[in-house]
Every structure is written in structure tokens, then in C-alpha cells.
Amino acid sequence: MQDAVRELVRDGDTVAIEGFTHLICFAAGHEIIRQRRRDLTLARMTPDVIYDQMIGAGVASKLIFSWMGNPGVGNLHAVRRRVERGDPEPLELEEYSHFGMVCRYMAGAANLPFFPIRSYYESDIPRVNPKIVPMDSPYDDRERVYVVPPLRPDVAIVHAQRADAGGDTQIWGLMGCQKEVAFAGRKVIVVVEEVVDESLIRRDPNRTVIPGAVVDAVVEEPFACHPSFAQGYYDRDNRFYLEWDRIAKEPESLEAWLDEWVYGLSDHREYVEKYGDAYWDSLRPGPASSGEVDYGRYA
After folding, report:
1. Per-domain residue ranges for the chain?
2. What confidence score (pLDDT) does residue 297 get?
3. CA distance linking residue 125 with residue 199, whole number of Å
4. The model scores a pTM over 0.85
5. Across-strand partners of 148?
6. Where residue 290 falls among pLDDT bands split at 50, 70, 90?
7. How far apart are CA 129 and CA 124, in angstroms?
8. Residue-wise over 167-176: b if at least 16 C-beta within 10 A, else e?
């Protein structure tokens, strides 16, 4: 992770750490904080606690987003301080709907100049975001849609359950927009719970969501999503999200947490060791296997 961030993430970049409910790579965000990147534009369909931590640590000057908050709990206090009070400095916002963000990634992935979307009809969001532009259909002058520009992050960071060393990446459970952001990214870091042999990937090819051809770095980092979860590997740590509301409420307690859990550790492995084996065992799910199929071998 240290090498991937050091080599691929630059000050001033647009960085997208995606993942919807699960597969949110906190470890990558922590390493970006640890390496003290600055003036980043952070993009994410649903910025939650990891972006609160990164924005609280001062790595970002702008946020491109749809919904944001501490899911199931409440506000992102560090973000609110930056937006409402400019404390310690202002944070620029660029807001879309969930589907608007997905369409931006899809346009970026397909190298399109824009992507049409119906769902801004009667929405107030275009009033506050001039990048959402109304457009008449070239085929029917009675049809009007909105269009959004492509989003091509300088660095796209996605988490998955497994990949081989060549970057062929497999995901199961909620997909979010991992595939779209990976194809849209100019550089792509894939973080996985485990790197497996190519033969295992080939045994189950339909789970391969991201091909190695678009991947610049593969990082094996178990428990990298904590306190988010990785389907089949560990559960969501709901207690952390509740506790974060207290931690982030004041700048002093947030800074103390960063000092202990990010700056004070050399990497994510130390983070895992600090919690201890019993803690991780408490988050492990029971089995719920999915059956195999016979693809058939043809001459």
C-alpha cells in the first residue's frame, strides 16, 4: 500500500475511493493521510467516515459527491466544519445524485463527452451545479434530458475480495460502481483481501469484474475495509460508526484519533495487530456458500 500510494497518488490529483456499503478501502485512505498528500479532489458516490477522516486530516480541497453522512448515525462533523465554518479552511463541494455520479463514471469509462440522464427532471440540484446541463434530444424536439460530464479520476482505488497477481479482480455481493470507476480511472489501485493463483480466477470467470489490463497496482491487505466490511470475510463494525460520531465532533478528539490510529502506525498491518485477533474473530461471518457450475470444456 505504501508503494502504491507513493508511486501513483500525487498532490492535486482527483482520487476516487469507491465501494457501496461494503468494500470501502479505509486502509488506502489512511495511507494517503499518512503520506500527507494535499489539495486532493475526492470523488465518491457516498462519502462517509473515510472521507470525514481524510478531510479532517487536511488532504482535500474539494469533494465531488452525491449523498454523504455517517450511515445510520448522522453527520460528518469534519466535513461540516470545513463547509459551514471554513475550519480550518473552506471545502469546495460539487453535488450530484447517486445516479448522476454513476453516469459520470460511465461516461469516463466509455470515453464519452457527456452522459444523458432523466432523473434531474424537477430536481433542484441543477440550480446549484452548473455542470448539470439541460439538452434537447437530437431525435425528438419534444424530449429534454440533462447531461453530466465524464469523471476520470487521476487515481481510482477499489477494494475486492480477491485478485491474481496480474490484476484480474473478482467481486461478489453488492457491486456498487467498482467496475465503472476502475474503467474510468487514469490509474487504478486494486486492494484485495487475498491475492490468489490465476487458476482460481479462471475457475470462476464470471466473478471477474475488473480485468488486469486496466489495473496499475494490486495490494493484498486483509481487513483493509474496516470498519466497513468485505462480503464473506468480515462483518461491518457498527460500534465504530457510532463511536466516530463522538470522535469527530471536536477537532481535538479527531486529531487524537488520527495520531493514534493513522500517524502513529507505520501501515495497516500494525492497525490490524493493534486491535488483536479476538476483535477480528468477533467480526467473522458464518458460512453461506454459493454453488459451483460446470462451464463445460470444448475441443
Report:
1. 2-36+154-282
2. 87
3. 47
4. yes
5. 115
6. confident
7. 9
8. bbbbbeeeeb
Percent of the chain past pLDDT 70, that is, above it, reads: 100
Percent of the chain scoring above 90 in pLDDT? 90
Scored b (16 or more CB within 10 A) or e, 115-139 reads bebeebeeeeebeebeebeeeeeee
CB 104 within 8 A of CB 150: yes
Alpha carbons 181 and 189: distance in angstroms, whole number: 11
Q: CATH assignment of 2-36+154-282?
A: 3.40.1080.10
- Residues 43-84: pLDDT tens digits? 999 999 999 999 999 999 999 999 999 999 999 999 999 999
Assign 3-class secondary structure to the chain: CHHHHHHHCCCCCEEEECCCCCCCCHHHHHHHHHCCCCCEEEECCCCCHHHHHHHHCCCEEEEEECCCCECCCECCHHHHHHHHHCCCCCCEEEECCHHHHHHHHHHHHHCCCCEEECCCCCCCHHHHCCCCEEEECCCCCCCEEEEECCCCCCEEEEEEEEECCCCCEECCCCCCCHHHHHHHCCEEEEEEEEECCHHHHHHCHHHEEECHHHCCEEEECCCCCCCCCECCCECCCHHHHHHHHHHHCCHHHHHHHHHHHHHCCCCHHHHHHHHCHHHHHHCCCCCCCCCCCCCCCCC
217 and 192 in contact (C-beta within 8 Å)?
A: no
Q: Is 209 exposed, middle or buried (0-12, 13-18, 19+ CB in 10 A)?
A: middle
